[in-house]
Amino acid sequence: MNINTINILVLAYMGDVIYESYIREYLINNGINKVNQLQKEATKYVSARAQNNYLQQMLKQQILTEEEIKIIKRARNNKGNAHPRHTDIVTYKWATGLEALIGYLYLMERKTRIEQLMTFIINLGGEK
Known about the structure:
Helix content is about 70%, strand content about 0%. It contains six helices and no strands. Helix 1 packs across helix 2 (about 35-45), helix 2 packs across helix 3 (about 50-60) and helix 4 packs across helix 5 (about 90-105).
């Protein structure tokens, strides 16, 4: 499979599933066992605003490789303008970049790297 020929939004679609799965598993493993509470806590991690904030911290702390930044920029620069009503387009595109990165890493079978990034995100989420 040539990862560069896959539509960037398909990578984001895959990344969304992986990202949310990690967050849900983390929350369940931390004793949250009510669906309403799981949903409320998950939103702190999976909203476009939260994903944008986590990605900005990764960029600020320079923990991403050049290859990873290229994937993020490819997603961010996608020509689509659709976005949820409650999120501005810039925030949404950065969040899509994070999801595309996770999808890319997953399809490249880089589970250890996904775990490193998700640990970073979860640790930041705990600081709120």
